[in-house]
């Protein structure tokens, strides 16, 4: 298991995917089986139905935090991962403020990881979504 210092060093050196950067996600906690992030709501870029953000923004934040957590917790010898399944229960929405995501690993195996995430609205404390995904762990191909 990595130490907190190792996770922080990893976060400083890893190149976040362009989509992650485009969204404006800020990682606030990174560790063993956990990743937390925040996303300021940008209007009108994130608009969906009048007055609310698009549901895809919420799902993208959850998937990004779960993915960053998975990448930081890859088993030895793994080269990456890919999401092979995801599900989201959308419970509410927001129009302004900041989205907060807490992603935690439910299973960290050699071939798959399962991550759960909860997205909340920072200002109201409302839960906006419950998310679960399965990540397939990738290894170098054996010739």
Helix percent reads 10-25%
Count up the domains.
1
The portion of residues forming beta strands comes to: 35-45%
Q: Determine the number of helices (DSSP H or I, runs of at least 4 residues).
A: 3
InterPro entries: HotDog_dom_sf (IPR029069), PAAI_dom (IPR003736), Thioestr_dom (IPR006683)
Domain Thioesterase: 51-125
Pfam families: 4HBT
Keywords: Hydrolase
Can you tag this structure with a few keywords?
143 residues, alpha+beta, Thiol Ester Dehydrase, Chain A, 6-stranded antiparallel sheet, 3 helices, 40% strand
Can you give a write-up of this model?
This protein is of the alpha+beta class. It has one domain: Thiol Ester Dehydrase, Chain A. It has three helices and six strands. It has a six-stranded antiparallel sheet with strand order 1-2-4-5-6-3. The two termini are 30 Å apart. Keywords: Hydrolase. Pfam families: 4HBT (PF03061).
């Amino acid at each position: 298991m990595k130490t907190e210092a190792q996770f922080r060093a990893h976060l400083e050196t890893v190149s976040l995917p362009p989509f992650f950067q485009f969204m404006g996600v800020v990682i606030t906690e990174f560790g063993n089986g956990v990743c937390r992030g925040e996303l300021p709501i940008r209007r009108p870029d994130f608009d969906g139905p009048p007055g609310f953000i698009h549901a895809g923004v919420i799902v993208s934040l959850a998937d990004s935090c779960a993915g960053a957590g998975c990448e930081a917790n890859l088993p030895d010898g793994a080269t990456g991962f890919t999401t092979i399944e995801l599900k989201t229960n959308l419970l509410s929405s927001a129009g302004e403020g900041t989205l907060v995501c807490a992603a935690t690993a439910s299973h960290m195996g050699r071939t798959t990881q399962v991550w759960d995430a909860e997205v909340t609205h920072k200002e109201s404390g409302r839960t906006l979504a419950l998310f679960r995904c399965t990540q397939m762990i990738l290894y170098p191909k054996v010739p």
